[in-house]
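Most newcomers find our protein records easier to grasp once they have seen one. Read left to right, the backbone structure tokens trace the chain's path through space. Once this layout is familiar, the rest of the handout is easier to follow. The record below serves as our worked example for the rest of this section:


***
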Amino acid sequence: MSTVRPILTITGSDSTGGSGVQADIKIISALGGYAVSAITCITVQNTLGIQEFYDIPAAVVSAQIEAVVNDVEPGVVKVGMIRSVEILDVIVNALTKYRPGYVIYDPIVYSSNGEKLMEDNVVAQIQQRLVPLCSLVINQRLSAHGQHNMFSSAIAAYLSKGAPMQEAINEAKGYVNSQLSRQEGLQGRASELYHEFLDQVTEHFRTNNDVAFYADCLNVSSRYLAQVTRKISGKAPKNIIDEYVMNEIKQELRVSDKTVQEIAYHFGFSSQAHFAKFFKKLAGCTPSEFRKSK
């Protein structure tokens, strides 16, 4: 049986483990391969999507590749996330210089949530300069990126064990199908958290309209809470809080005999003027005008 040679994965880091270097190492290891890596980009992301990119300087990417290739001589190179022409230069130069047995490119143009990860000029340069050096390019249109990542990593693993290309592809398809039938992937708690947030607003809206207060109640960051509410409702947490308060105020103005000042204090406003300013900003009229119109 052929000796298993290391697989070099050149790609980004995915905090969720659904793709990127984390998934590559996991899949390659599960299939008996040995993965080494060069990271091109660190992402800040969760199940709701990518919030930020931190691109690794091209010189550092080059140093990672050189250190690994000179030492362990990987027989297969898998290329994933490339976000700049400078990093493309590094990868093309390394592939041209070292000429590994197989080069597999998994195009990462869009994330699984539809976010565009590469500029058009980078895509064009990849098509002209990287694709001709590849043994296999995965067609990303077929399914979600996470599945392609699994498929291409599995192909790399089988190739590293000496399988011919077509056999590696067939084995990888079988592996992906077996995995998809028994796993659903990482699931976040966005829906559950969103409903917990609404419950908290219902309970505390008279005394608290600060997003940080509700985030603390739910033991999450304000930023994550905002990601959840925007993903599910398209609204920021503050908008949801204010809308709920407004609906309650309008109901009070419709059915109560309390004065506007009494209602203002009842809803936790420091003054009638503050209350009127808040109401007019959201309703387009003063509380008194709203009451008269009803």
User: Anything to note?
Assistant: The radius of gyration is 27 Å.
